[in-house]
Amino acid sequence: MTNSLSIPAGGQTNGRHDPDKLLAAVPGLLGFVPERSIVLLAFSGERTVAATMRHDLCLTKAGAPSAGMRQLFIRLGALAASYRTIGTVAVIVDDRFPPDDQRYRRVAAAAHKGFRPAGGLSAAFAMAEAVAGADWHTIWRPQSGTPPHPFPGSVPDRGLLSDPNASPTALERAVNSGRRILSRRSEMEGLLSPVPHCADLLCHAEFPVPVRHQPGREDARGLEIVLAAVDRFGAGDLDLPCDEVNRLAAALVSVHVRDALLGLSLTARRGAAEDLWRALTRRLSGHARAAAATLLGHVHYMAGEGAYAGVALRVAQDADPDYNLANLLDTALANGMRPRELGGLAELAYDIAEALGTRLPPPLFEAAG
């Protein structure tokens, strides 16, 4: 799940609601161009998307939504109801059949049924790909009564998609996060692919393992080392020689240091911290890689970037399947827990840092959603 921005559902043309702006905003909301997916946009206000939910589109051989998808719609519908949404729009992006194929209408009908606790669907659209000039079709509308927001009136039967890269949502994302829309979700995984431990000619990588202990001086020194590296990254110094990578790895395998660093996710240092966590995720292995990837996933989670958070947390789980915090955050993400509901982690982080003799910068941002 991705917590989203406030965006217009679209204007009106010849008395009809024009969904193009909303459809073109989908890649910007996700951070990547979806493929063979269904995207559900839950509205908390007439022009505000409260949550964006993307899932792989799973069809049976007969072309019907799989049993798993039907159960998914029921779970997501209950989740949308808990958000007090006033309407939901389904967008199918799939190149296996023509956009107006009856298979997609059946998927939309199943989604409407699952979302009944949240008022059902307002509309469903389908397109082969979410790129400029793609032919989109309105494949489903409620047969009776007034549809919920954001399209309580009629919408066109079809249209051509405007450029998602030029959508206000994509531009706002670029300004706020500095990230472009990726051409596919796998690019997110590529951003975390392993690289050499360091550029030193004589690399002597160390592989620290966690040891249960009470917080002490070693943790205090480790926290200082990591915070100093964050400051250097914020100043543009991205050099990480072998010895420093080893020191950072040793610090991150301490649960006390890691937990204190969670507090950076809502401060002015979160951009620099994100860059350092990403660099260390790529350079480290084992438990240290899991720690760095978990910190990265937490930063994305707090910013409402669910897709990026999910990829980072899966990297952490691959590095260490028993890494508890990664598993907990991944479960929270899968269950649609809002970032602001994890505020207790930040409070704990400040308490731990203070106990280690370090004062973290004050929070500057609020958790998304």
UniProtKB/TrEMBL annotation:
InterPro entries for the chain: DUF4192 (IPR025447)
Organism: Gordonia neofelifaecis NRRL B-59395
Annotated region (Disordered), positions in chain: 142-174
UniProt superkingdom: Bacteria
Protein name: DUF4192 domain-containing protein
